Amino acid sequence: MKSRTLGAVCTAVLLAVVVTGCSGSKDDKGEGKAGSGTARAALDALAVKQAAPKAGYDREGKFGRAWSDKTDAPGSGNRCDTRNDILARDLKNPRNDGSSACVIASGTLDDPYTGKKIKFQRGTGTSSAVQIDHVVALGQAWVSGAQKIGQRQREALANDPLNLIAADGPANGQKSDQDASKWLPRNTAFQCTYVARQVAVKKKYGLTVNAGEKDAMARVLKTCPNEKLPVDGGTGVALKETRK
């Protein structure tokens, strides 16, 4: 009798485990569904499309003069070029050179891409140690839908603080215009933030992702499923989706 009772209990427990395992909010891959407001949810909503040819890409012709202050980005119109705006935002103890309220002459960067500290000093042969990276590279934006948005939106994208970050010069050069399937920051602690910023930019400007890129982004965000979608570029002004 004890053997039959024990067998019945085991069977009941097994059935309960099976039933429990089949319930709950799970997607078809057995993973929890992305929560509202997360980068994962925004990634799922992006259109997936093969990258377009890069023909016709021209940095100044299609995205405007580098570091122009002519932008729809929050905080624009302060008469400081975008490069110095981002240096002022991202460097610790940024200092002016005395010649202009805009020009940042020195400071320290906790580089998000490599994890190292970089002493920035403005000057020939030293300024390039810290570069301003387009999180979604302009060449990559061009092949993922920027060809179809207006000039005004492209110039905004090129100067939007959401899409700009001060970073190690060599790391930025290594990245070039590669998407997340081909390049991610060496500093793994920053990868979730980096991918979330890319997703936010692509959502804001109506850009697409290719299949490999989406898979790479999803792998990163799987490690941080609650990573929030950034809402601004460090200005405190809410992100708004740009319409075509």
Automatic annotation (TrEMBL):
<dbReference type="InterPro" id="IPR011089">
    <property type="entry name" value="GmrSD_C"/>
</dbReference>
<feature type="domain" description="GmrSD restriction endonucleases C-terminal">
    <location>
        <begin position="81"/>
        <end position="220"/>
    </location>
</feature>
<dbReference type="Pfam" id="PF07510">
    <property type="entry name" value="GmrSD_C"/>
</dbReference>
<feature type="region of interest" description="Disordered">
    <location>
        <begin position="60"/>
        <end position="81"/>
    </location>
</feature>
<protein>
    <recommendedName>
        <fullName>GmrSD restriction endonucleases C-terminal domain-containing protein</fullName>
    </recommendedName>
</protein>
<feature type="compositionally biased region" description="Basic and acidic residues">
    <location>
        <begin position="60"/>
        <end position="72"/>
    </location>
</feature>
